[in-house]
């Protein structure tokens, strides 16, 4: 158990943390610490909303969350000797929740504040609070389900170079320009509002804030990958774009389903990570790597393949319109089918939506060449439910209502 | 080992099979056999191209394949007592290749004849031939890789009702109408050319041929799902749309990677399936099911999660254009990154493309809410290679060339 | 699917097979075929009893089985170039049951004819017949249980050298001499009775019969290993003791639990194996190997570790006597505890005994240093039962009787 | 993260702990705390030797360890409402090492002080010290190997009733009486020496010390089970013999191989466990349970079955003597074969012995009916080594010496 290299104080907002934190990506955000290749060190992280979401039964915090504040990231940590073109080898030796933050939350973000994957079906803000029993999570808002967490940081990355940052801003602005007034927006441009940039201050801070990339998308620095399998015991190789690499991390998830479909879709929490870092010199060029490569952990929760139910989705939307090999539409179709199915067991649709977003479900691109439909599947592990969800000769419709908890 | 209910003769074309086969979906294609719930029976299947692709080192057959002939399906088998609204419970008790067809092929279809997922990058037809050593596959065209197959039918489904068929035709024609001359086409409309419709003949055959749906896409009858995990030992629940359900099957794959990205992307072969069928009366309504639900097999080849390499893709295309939460673009990006990476070990890009399409790779929708990018990942099992593909301090660029087989 | 190198005729007894078979181990049993390193070939095998056990509901065949006839082995196959001191690399590419033998049996052997692990508790002969539904086995004699098979040859080995054979005979005779009249016997000495020795005949056959080792025990040539994990897709490295190695195989099991505790404890059947062989020259010396080393298959049926129930056994026998770190007594204790537990769900003890012997149960030596007890565990996969066998607040005693099949 | 119900102070010996600890099993050791069914609570534990073994490079502490001091156990915890005949449902929600004890040790105990499974081959005391990198363990004394831990308490149990205790003492004394002077002893009788009995004092303490069972063997109260799979996330059902159940726990292992063959064979450490307890009333009778039943955890480290090497052992000892179906002799044979094999890669035999004892190896009773030999196997996961340990055409003998660390 290494000493914390970077600590957080859960009683204070992001602006008052020591060392300072940040919520943008920019090459000029100063490192708060440096380490050598081979070092082991602990980094603590606040939850992604800086404590805005509370452990209560009211989703107004999700509804009103100022999204320009996210994600609160710890770092950057400079790795001595790292140069652009290297690969940073990042071992996540262990991950846990902070002693003073022993709970988590899932938010369905409202259509007009962030939105979610199925925002048109679920336009209103909702929330579920989760309790942790050691390796297991359960929720007072969603009955009948309990699962081991795949704890991971939803966001982790190296600092972009100035060139790479410029490329990000250009391509995202081009997208925004296609429909600038859209709700939710097509992308989020840099904004000074709520920008936190480590130790920068004054005019320099203001300039960087106007340039710095927002943290929501995954990009070539790994970024907000939300790959649930980058968990405790995993390794990532991440491209280095600036001297020192400048590794930052945050957005700790106790668990997440593939897709993280409710947006604040994982079980969000505050936690710590024990890192080991190393370098592969000139690795980007030697391996042709231009984004993160991940080796998952041998201790991922595992279920027999025969203990999943897979729901088949196609590229046809709710109105019956056929889309051309569109995996997004297909994944949406699979998710809606799984939600409808869970509803037959007595879940509210919002509960089912939250289960898909948080439990260790498997989202797959099964076929992407069968014109005009992609076939995506959503796999539900049956062992996480305390009743049998498989179809049977005498099963639901809408059975077992009484055994499930009060809906949110 | 049940007696074959439906046999095929590999020496004869589809038109001369007894019982007759079909290559379209239509409610009026007559069943060729009937079974009772609880029955066990074997169905033999030709390869999807009706033997057009040959075991040789020349891809001109892939280039010239008349796609209006596919997929050759065995059936329909009527299940006594099945009524619209039921769920057909289909157990795939075992699957194997036919004794006289002990090999398989993978085709990269040309851009102007079918195309593939990366048709713009790989516009020309290519082919790889695979040998089977019991449960393992290897190819004389792609060195250094060998893996256990996840044998499955790429296509399996129930007959659509007239209403459902009409809906399919309408929505797909609407899509085609957006760009009728596109190459490859946005979708394939019904065509009399090469239509094979079981025992139908004369004017009835011609009318049905003009109405019947082509077989390439997955649809609400399961169809061309290409879900690799619907393998030997698996179960599927499939909606019933016509009396008797009318189950058909074909397109046997010895192995396939998620996405089946080269289009004829699996290891295609001719094989047999031992089925057990049963019914859940009124199951569609009781479980809210409107497409197949699949329970995979306990004997899927399995690898430790820590023995995969995951490549992260984002919704940015080759020209650097940002797309809005587009999982198709993101999966494409992940695939291209994995192909480039394998190239560093000495593979031609076409070889790497074929590996991704055939080996038991995992394609995942990791995050689909991180505006403006979806994050999809492609997971390569490292144990299928006879050299270590993980990044190391002193590894490739473009090493090991000599140890790999001659490229196609 | 390679052509059979060695075929069997199920309608004829062992003595009339062509090529001849054998049921003893001896260096002078002549090879019936030869292959080269790198060859792939199929070997067919009769069931171990030469068809003595029948598919009926009467265990008198188990009771009366002449054990000097077992095991019927196919081979030997000579591998060109193999020399004493080499390692024979044996790939079991695929394994299946013979088309004309689509069933299996399990026998509890009587105390006075072979016996079993718990012969004192179960002194009488019993039998269970199994049906195969593709990869799954179930029995009309044991309800509520169905599982995927781990098909494997219970016996496989190379021929012993004359020296090695002499050592076997000496050490086993020394054991027998300690209690020559014991029932069941401590070991089985060579006997001419029922000895089948391939193409040997006349005086040579009689001499060899008097010398040749019986086939029941595992020995340094791999032999009757009954390692269930040496299944389809697995590899074994086996020491070579005679020129040509002389590989023989038989005793096909559709499935077996660790321990094979009822003696004829697996699901015994007749089958075929597709082999690939190779050599590691001087491998015994270079790797210090003096018995088989096995690499299991990636397609073993697998269950989540959390879907097993482990029963803890200690080195205390039924009379309460403490034995000194005795793993045999401890494994027996664990088995008896599991049998008693299953009885609470309505199984007869003989049914439970047969389940432990045939299903994919895990038998482990958990601790063997905790003086004076070894701790062995028996692990039952809960997913093979169609009811929940885990302890619960309101579960058995002796519930569910009606739902299980009539006991044998 | 529950508050610790029971804490330990690593700076103080067992006699000075508050609450008091104990190192014997006896019904009259007073509970130090009580909980209700449904409660969650943390228990801290010293290492089993009370800190006797030190983090250094000298095994004299192992040699001189006074074994009458072990095992230091925390508890008993009384569960309100528990009555004899109930089953105590014990969930191990999470387990970790103590912040001030971030290392572990393995001891090969000397033949004349405790001994080990292979004491005659390894008569002298040896030691290996292990470092923890998050979920992984490695040792400065054993190179080339690193593995994820399966953290578990080696010892956990309920208090015996007076009757059960008397039965233990009687049967163990009978065994001792067969060879009272044996080294190592056949069993360890009660002794006042070093007995620590919680808050008992004076004459009562002395009486109980003379009666109380030593802690080395597993017994009907679960006890020193050393089942590595009773890990974080697992559940055990343990018989209740006294009112309140009186649960005690200790002997934390960071990792262990099946068999724990060097005696102090796991990676021993000091740690904490988060428990949840519940009751099944009258469960012993209703389920026929007379010792612990264990459901392992879904997050056990897992490896593909095809990434193990299994070594086959038979019931023949080092002198070539055949034993009758003796699983202990067979497991010994398998272990010796694995040790010899690892030696060919440059390990000292003591290093190999320690690897088998600590790494997640699988020890199986493969066959226990093949008279006169049992067949046991030892399975080595190949992925824990940083070189390929599988036999190959050009591999060792005794290669790679230089790459391994200096032997102990």
Which terms would index this structure?
6 helices; five-stranded mixed beta sheet; alpha+beta; 408 residues; homotetramer; globular
Low confidence ranges of chain A: 401-408
Which strand order spans the largest sheet of chain A, edge to edge or round the barrel?
1-3-15-5-12-16
- Give me the secondary-structure category of chain A: alpha+beta
The largest sheet of chain A, given as strand count, sense and whether it forms a barrel, is: 6 strands, mixed
Radius of gyration of chain A over all CA atoms, rounded: 21 Å
Largest interface: A-B, 107 and 107 residues
Q: How would you sum up the global shape of chain A?
A: globular
Could you state the order of secondary-structure elements of chain A as H and E? EEEHEEEEEEEHHEEEEEHEEHHEE
Strand content of chain A: 25-35%
Which whole number gives the mean pLDDT of chain A? 96
Quaternary arrangement of the chains shown? homotetramer
Number of helices of chain A: 6
How would you describe this structure to a colleague?
The structure is a homotetramer of 408-residue chains. With 408 residues, chain A is an alpha+beta fold. Chain A contains 6 helices and 19 strands. In chain A, the strands form 4 sheets. Chain A has a 6-stranded mixed sheet with strand order 1-3-15-5-12-16, with no helix packed on it. In chain A, strands 2-4-13-10-11 form a 5-stranded mixed sheet, with no helix packed on it. A 5-stranded antiparallel sheet of chain A has the order 9-8-7-6-14. In chain A, a hairpin with a 7-residue loop joins strand 18 (362-367) and strand 19 (375-381). In chain A, helix 5 crosses helix 6 (349-358). The first copy, chain A, starts with a strand and ends in a 27-residue tail after the last strand. Residues 401-408 of chain A have low confidence and may be disordered. Chains in contact: A-B, A-C, A-D, B-C, B-D, C-D. Chains A and B meet through helix 2, helix 4, strand 16, strand 17 and helix 5 of A and helix 2, helix 4, strand 16, strand 17 and helix 5 of B.
């Amino acid at each position: 158990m290494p000493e914390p290299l970077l600590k957080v104080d859960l009683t204070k907002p992001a602006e008052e943390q020591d060392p300072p934190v940040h919520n943008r990506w920019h090459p000029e955000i100063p490192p708060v610490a440096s380490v050598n290749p081979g070092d082991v060190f602990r980094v603590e992280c606040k939850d992604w909303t800086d404590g805005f979401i509370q452990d209560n039964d009211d989703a107004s915090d999700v509804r009103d969350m100022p999204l320009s504040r996210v994600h609160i990231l710890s770092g950057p940590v400079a790795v001595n000797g790292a140069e652009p073109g290297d690969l940073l080898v990042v071992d996540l030796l262990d991950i846990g929740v902070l002693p003073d933050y022993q709970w988590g939350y899932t938010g369905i973000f409202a259509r007009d504040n962030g939105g979610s994957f199925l925002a048109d079906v679920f336009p209103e803000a909702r929330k579920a609070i989760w309790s942790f029993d050691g390796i297991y999570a359960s929720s007072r808002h969603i009955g009948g389900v309990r699962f081991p967490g795949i704890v991971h940081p939803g966001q982790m990355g190296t600092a972009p170079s100035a060139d790479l940052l410029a490329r990000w801003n250009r391509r995202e602005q081009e997208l925004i320009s296609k429909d600038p007034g859209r709700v939710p927006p097509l992308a989020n441009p840099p904004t000074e509002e709520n920008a936190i940039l480590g130790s920068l201050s004054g005019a320099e801070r203001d300039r960087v804030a106007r340039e710095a990339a927002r943290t929501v998308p995954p990009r070539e620095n790994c970024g907000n990958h939300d790959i649930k399998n980058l968990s405790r015991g995993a390794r990532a190789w991440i491209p280095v774009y600036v001297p020192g690499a400048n590794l930052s991390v945050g957005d700790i998830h106790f668990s997440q389903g593939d897709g993280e479909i409710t947006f604040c879709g994982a079980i969000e929490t505050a936690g710590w990570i024990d890192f080991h870092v190393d370098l592969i010199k000139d690795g980007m060029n030697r391996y042709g790597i231009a984004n993160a490569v991940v080796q998952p952990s041998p201790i991922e929760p595992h279920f027999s393949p025969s203990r999943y139910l897979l729901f088949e989705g196609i590229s046809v939307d709710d109105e019956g319109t056929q889309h051309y090999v569109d995996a997004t539409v297909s994944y949406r179709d699979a998710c809606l089918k799984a939600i409808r199915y869970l509803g037959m067991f007595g879940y509210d649709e919002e509960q089912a939506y939250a289960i898909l977003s948080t439990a260790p479900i498997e989202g797959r691109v099964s076929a992407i060449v069968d014109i005009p439909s992609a076939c995506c599947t959503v796999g539900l592990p049956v062992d996480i439910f305390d009743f049998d969800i498989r179809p049977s000769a005498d099963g639901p419709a809408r059975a077992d209502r009484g055994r499930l908890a009060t809906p949110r």
